[in-house]
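ok here's the first one, seq then struct tokens
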Amino acid sequence: AWALLTSAILVVGPVLYLVHTYSPRKNDEAIKNPHEPIYIGLGSPSRCTWYIYGALLQQGGMNLPKTDGARLIVGTWWLVVMVVVATYSGSLVAFLTFPKMEDAINNLDDILQRRQEFTWSLPQGSFLEDFLIVSGEQGMADYRGLLEENEPHARKHDAIAYEANVRKVKHEKHVVIDWTSALKISSRNDHMSTGMCYFSLSTDVLMLEEPIAMGLPADSPYRQIIND
């Protein structure tokens, strides 16, 4: 838009000079009144260009054109200026009053709907990957489009490579799909190292119970109690 306005100023200014200088009425006035002072207000292309630029900033000039053709050009340019200023002012007020907010990603359906805007990754070889492979069967929602084999924006990540995932979320439009506990640990570790929180966690993305286990000695007497 700014390039078009600059081009318009550079074009309209010389055109105004040509129309004003070579107008038949101006020549007739010079013949009828040879002793009248020479009109130099718009007497050069640079002056005309400067006049057009000042009109864009809503600054009137000291001199007005005397010929009909030049007056028509100036009047048309003022109409253009009014439209441009009104449009720009309205857009600026709307932007400052109602800033554009990016919609949050709350579930897997949001990712699939906006798949061209984001990349995402799943833990490689995990139960989540196996679940998505069989999704769509037995009346479940079909999320096989999230798999790397079916979508070029999909990725896989190692379960322990949380630093790489954090870096992608910070600097790229990337979504990490993992167990809630793993994401909370990644968020906590990054918060402890940087002192800032860059994450927003979406819960209940998939209605899956997260398996939790506890490591015990092979001959522990408490194993049966815990399992029960």
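and now the second one, same deal
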Amino acid sequence: MASPSRPDSPAPGEVRIPQQARSRRTRARILDAATRAFEELGYDDATTAAIAQLAGVAVGSVYSYFADKRSILLEILQETLDQMRREIIAGLAPELWRQGDLRLKVRALVETALKPRRFQPGLQRILWERYFKDPLVRDAIEAIERPLIDAIEQLLEVLREEGLSDVADVSSASFVIHTSVEWIAARLVLGEAPQEKVDAAVDTTSAMISRLILSEAPGFSQGLT
């Protein structure tokens, strides 16, 4: 049964941004509590009452900031995805590839993309499960795809110009790399893979991408010149 609406609560799908410091702290506590509730209880059992109890606030306070638990989940998802996008794009900056073994650079990026999924695995499972059920969750996940693919394309173009990559179709290669890593990460989370399987996936995925994008020309492991 849907939670009753409050006269002063946000409309469905909306959130209220507090202005006062105490209100901001309360809102942050609700988000932290919701993250714990989703992680420990799963989406269906993480009721607004459970979230309010963990946050130490009244249920009405939750509705003062969020229309429902779906709105809370969407905000947590957006924050998580934004952080992941920033970290991965930072690692794709061409200036970071000007020295060192490029295969190790590839591995570091794959590790960044896969291993954060092991933190809060319950929450990550919810996000991927909701991907297939909730169009707003799907839109949020897909919204970060273009910036990531663009960053991969930019790096591959630089590597190709320097003779360190012989990829003919940079656009297709970027799409394949992004999609492969994304869905490997999803399968690891949804399958509750043990850490050793995650480590093996990082090794295998890194080797696969290195073979795809890096030339075998002498000196390719020394980075850009």
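notes on #2: The chain has two domains: 19-66, 68-213. The CA atoms of residues 63 and 75 lie 14 Å apart.
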